[in-house]
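re: ur msg from earlier - yeah i can do the S-adenosylmethionine complex, just paste it... oh wait u already did. ok heres what im feeding in:
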Amino acid sequence: MNWKVENAQLILQDVVAGLAEMPDNTFDLCIADPPYGASSKAKWKYDSEKKLEGFGGNWKLTSEVWDLLSQNELFESTFIWLKEVKRVVKPTGSIWIHSTYHNSGFVNVCCQLLGLEIINEVAWYKRNAFPNLSARRLTASHETILWVHTGEAKRSYLFNYEDVKKAKFESDSLKKQGKQLRTVWDIPNNKKKVELLFGKHPTQKPLRVSERLLMISGLENGKLLVPFTGSGTEMIAGLKYGMSVVGFEINAEYFELAKKRIEHFLVTQQQTLF
Ligand SMILES: C[S@@+](CC[C@H](N)C(=O)[O-])C[C@H]1O[C@@H](n2cnc3c(N)ncnc32)[C@H](O)[C@@H]1O
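and the outut:
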C-alpha cells in the first residue's frame, strides 16, 4: 500500500524491496531507527555448545516480532539495508542510525565495510531512563546514534554548523547557546501528549531527537528517507523542517498509526519545541 499526502509518502512494504525500485541519489538525508534485535528470544545462531559471552543477555526490550532477529540475521540484514540506503542517499547527504549495544557493533562494522565514513558517534543520554528491575545490571540510560556520510574523501555532506552553534535546547544541560554541540546529548525520553495522541509504538522516539538531527543536517525543500517508520516520528520532524518525506513500514498497525500522526500534524502543524 502506498499512501501520499502533500509532501509525505508512506509505503507499507519491506524497505529493501521498496528501495530497489528507486534510482541512485534520490535522497538528501536518511534517519534510520532499525530493529535493535533486543527482544529476549534473540540468540546467536551458531553451535549452541559455543559460549559467546556478552551477546544479548536477558535484556528484554520489546518482545516484538519485528525485533526477533537472531544475531547473524541482524548482521546480514543491517548490511543489506545499509547498502541500499547508501545507494539512494546523495554524496551531499547524511545517514543517521539509531542503535543500542545489541546492534551498535554491527551497525559500526557494516558502515566501515560499506565505506560509509562515520562523522560522529553520539551518545544520547536519557536522564529519565527506567530503573533496572533485576538489580543485576547498571541502569541502561543511553543510546548510540551514528552520523555517517556517503561522499567518501570529498566530505561534501551538509552540516548546518551555524544553526547548531547558536541553538539553545531547553532540556539539554550540556549545550550552551553559542557553543559547539558535543557528542553527548541530554534529551529526556518522555513524549508530549500530542506525540501519543493516536496510540503508542513500543520503541517510539521523542520528536526532540529527530528535530535535532534535522537541525544539524536537514535541507529545506530536500528529500528525507525514513526506512523504519514505526509511529512516524522522523517523518513528522522532516515535514516540520520543510522536507518532503518518504517512509517505509512493514507492520500494518504501525503504518496506520503513522498515517494518523502525519495527517494530524499536517492539519494542525502542532509542534513540540526543543
Ligand atoms: C525501532 S522501530 C522505529 C520507531 C520510530 N523511530 C518511532 O519513533 O516510532 C522500527 C520499525 O521498523 C519496522 N520494520 C522492521 N523491519 C522493517 C523492514 N524490513 N522494512 C520496513 N519496516 C520495518 C518495525 O515494524 C518497526 O515499526
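cool cool. The beta strands are 2-5, 8-12, 27-32, 89-99, 117-125, 142-149, 184-186, 223-226, 244-249. ping me if u need the other ligands too
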